[in-house]
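In this supplementary section we document a worked example of the pipeline. Step one takes a protein sequence of length 88 as its only input; no multiple sequence alignment statistics are reported here. Step two produces a three-dimensional model, which step three serialises into structure tokens for compact storage. The input and output of this example are shown verbatim.
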Amino acid sequence: MLIDPPIWPAHDTLWAHLVSDTSIEELHAFAAAAGIPRRGFDHDHYDVPESRWHELVALGAEPVGGLELARRLAASGLRVSQREKRGL
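The serialised model returned by step three reads:
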């Protein structure tokens, strides 16, 4: 499980991305165990608020930079491109 720094602003807070570089099933299982609502899932990652970042790291998410997260997600074959998200 990987998590990037909470630097993405929206809804009066900063957000991080939680991903698995192993499987989507692993990602959903981790999120469910951590109490992250399924509505936070966006094709290949969960958006998580800054207030949960340290807790998720304590639960086992590995902190990595945004570029490293994107690189490892792409290398795993689990990345969903913006084009795919738009259904093109």
